[in-house]
Specification:
Chain A has about 55 residues and is mostly beta strands. Chain A has one helix at about 5-10, and strands at about 20, 30, 35-40, 45, 55. The chains are: A mainly beta (about 55), B alpha/beta (about 200). The interface between A and B is medium-sized, with 20 and 23 residues.
């Protein structure tokens, strides 16, 4: 998995600019504040609000 | 407007029109990218400039490239791993940057501005201002107002396109000032058709 801790430190939610975390399956980045999950496709974080799914 | 369709031939095309390695080196020189810096390449395409920036900043630096086109990022990423480059890539747009405030020393944006409508350009420049640290640099490369009249024959249709008309009329400087940058310097290239803009936060 290409998304490591260092990368998460510098990534932020594109909507609220707040902190994000890796989900348990390690296939998405979660913004708790916006209740959004940004998918990771082929090891590339997809940091587009339109492509995010809502957090269940 | 993600440029997916052009991804397979983009590097070949850029070299053909005179935007090869030398031009990219000039871009990095003007931006003043040095070892240990944190650099963002907004609209990185296939990541040629991103990887060159990563080579300059070295292991103590951090370089990220974003682009909205999955195929561009796909090419960027596979080229980076083939070269052993430290550059990181992700899908993202300039008008909603996925980075915290004050996180970069330098933001580069090469031939991206003309893909954006005026309101997105303005929002994007504001986002760049936000992610730059105080004193950080924003270098934009794009078409501007040609200083040589011969170019006008080629560029006049761009005056009728909302994405480019402000650039051709020489009004891009205003976008920097409106986004919070206190000043901006402009340097012409290729008789003024291609321009470099350098702003500091």
């Amino acid at each position: 998995m290409g998304v490591d801790k260092e990368l998460l430190d510098i990534l932020a939610c594109p909507k609220c600019k707040g902190k994000i975390r890796l989900n348990e399956k390690k296939d998405g980045l979660v913004c708790e504040r916006c209740r959004l999950v940004y998918p990771i496709k082929d090891d590339i974080p997809v940091m587009l609000i339109d492509e995010a799914s809502s957090l269940k | 407007m993600p440029l997916n369709w052009v991804a397979p031939v983009y590097d070949w095309y850029c070299a053909k029109v005179g935007l090869g390695k030398k031009f990219r080196q000039r871009t990095l020189e003007l931006a003043g990218v040095r070892e240990g810096e944190r650099v963002l390449d907004a609209g990185c395409g296939t990541g040629v400039l991103t990887r060159m920036a990563a080579a300059l900043t070295g292991p103590s630096g951090y370089v990220a490239g974003i682009d909205p086109a999955p195929r561009m990022i796909g090419v960027a990423r596979s080229n980076a791993s083939a070269e052993g480059s430290r550059a990181e890539f992700r899908l993202g747009v300039i008008e909603e940057l996925p980075f915290p405030d004050n996180s970069f020393d330098c933001v580069l944006s090469s031939f991206m501005a003309h893909h954006l409508p005026p309101e997105v350009k303005l929002k994007g420049f504001g986002e760049v201002y936000r992610v730059l640290r105080p004193g950080g640099r924003f270098l934009v490369v794009d078409i501007g107002r040609p200083s040589n009249p011969l170019w006008w024959a080629a560029v006049f249709p761009l005056l009728f396109w909302s994405f480019t008309k402000d650039q051709i009329r020489g009004r891009l400087n205003g976008y920097f000032l409106e986004s919070g940058f206190p000043e901006v310097e402009q340097k012409g290239w290729w008789m003024g058709l291609i321009n470099f803009w350098l702003a500091r936060k």
